[in-house]
Amino acid sequence: MFAVSERRRTSQVVRLAPGVRVRGSIAYVPRRDHFFALDARHEAVLRRRTGDDEAIRTLAELGICDTEPATPRRAFFGRSVVGHLAALPAVTEPLVVNCFSTAFCPLRCRYCHADDLMTPGYREREDDRGLDRVLRVAGATPAMVGVVTGGEPLARAERTERLVERLAATGKAVVLDTSGVGDFSRIVPLLQRHHVHVRVSLDSADQAVNDALRPANRQFVPPGTSSAVYARDAIRRAVRAGVPCSVQTVVTRRNGDLPGLLALRDQVADLGVTTWVLHVVVPVGKAADPRRADLLAPEGVHGVVEELVRRSAADGVAMDIRLTSTHRAPNSTLLISADGELAVEDVINGGKRTFRLPRVGARAAVLRHFREHVDLTGHASRYLNGSLAPFENATGATLPRG
């Protein structure tokens, strides 16, 4: 807890909000699953040097800090810079590491970007030794956030449980990526215990459209399994349990029309979700296959999404809506395969480059590969949404505190 002692400047008591991580001028808010870059004025508040009512109110509206008396949280629409910065902060350590709990997946998403890390070879050698390597490398990676992904984490719940425990034990904020296909209720107590943020993938309010983009993998689930039904059920269970939950949508030619996105927005709001993230599909993984060129979003899709945001702001929708910058930062992620390899994107040849790490000196090896093989500017841009546009006070409706 920290208090602003200059009472002539502010009468509010200020403390970091629960679970918020801060590294230099970058803050991460787990409930919103969002990174913010702070200018000197707002960073100073968090460093206890000074404070003023306007800066404190902005930080509190974003959920970075709490105040007494309480300041209402406000919805925002994709802004990641608090104040004014001439450039995004320099990054020398990863903000996020994506950890595969398993290479098994009950779906065959048409645009899957990580299918090369889910080949039969990975599935065949998925054993306890591989999981031990995943846990070791995940623990050695100095990221602010650890994302448990796959594959589908619910497909191998016992591995997911161990990975969540490991990430939390090393001080990281933990996020779970899931389709919802599986026994979501099994892991709800774990999510509550470690304050995990859950991202559920849902691409359309129209079940047929969603299931065509995210069809069932008949090797692992019965024919007719609906990814939309499972996703909505997982969202309801998370919201009911008080687990922070967001919906993520991959925008393609098949679901990128404004009426369809507005319908999905309304469905997400009706489910009780207050964070919605949109990723415009990029030509990597399956989406890089020339035979799937008709999947790529049409030119002008960003204008459609911007209109969606404008309408939502004008309507006072109580929801954070964020458009990521994945299309502008192709070599920006750090991953750990289900076999414990460190993986980065291979932009020239497609797919991923993988590295085995030593048992001794794993942290140093992670940082070396991160700094040599990942676009550090792109990494910052990816998670700060690639924009220097500042957050504007009260750009959205008041959100429930949760």
Taking all residues together, what is the mean pLDDT? 89
Q: How many beta-strand runs? A: 18
- The run of helices and strands is EEEEHHEEEEHHEHEHEHHEHEHEEEEHHE
Radius of gyration: 20 Å
Helix percentage range? 25-40%
Strand numbers in spatial order across the main sheet:
14-13-12-11-10-9-8-15-16-17
Give the number of helices. Answer: 12
Low-confidence stretches: 1-11
Proportion of strand residues? 15-25%
Could you characterize what this model shows?
With 402 residues, the chain is of the alpha/beta class. The chain contains twelve helices and 18 strands. It has a ten-stranded mixed sheet. A four-stranded mixed sheet has the order 2-3-4-7. Strands 1-5 form a two-stranded antiparallel ribbon. The longest helix has 15 residues, at 227-241. The two termini are 21 Å apart.
List the SSEs and their pairings.
Elements: E1 13-16, E2 21-23, E3 26-29, E4 34-38, H1 40-46, H2 53-61, E5 65-68, E6 73-74, E7 81-82, E8 96-102, H3 120-124, H4 128-140, E9 145-150, H5 157-169, E10 173-178, H6 184-193, E11 197-201, H7 207-213, H8 227-241, E12 245-251, H9 258-270, E13 275-280, H10 301-314, E14 320-323, E15 335-336, E16 342-345, E17 352-355, H11 362-373, H12 376-383, E18 398-399
Parallel strand pairs: 4-7, 8-9, 8-15, 9-10, 10-11, 11-12, 12-13, 13-14
Antiparallel strand pairs: 1-5, 2-3, 3-4, 6-18, 15-16, 16-17
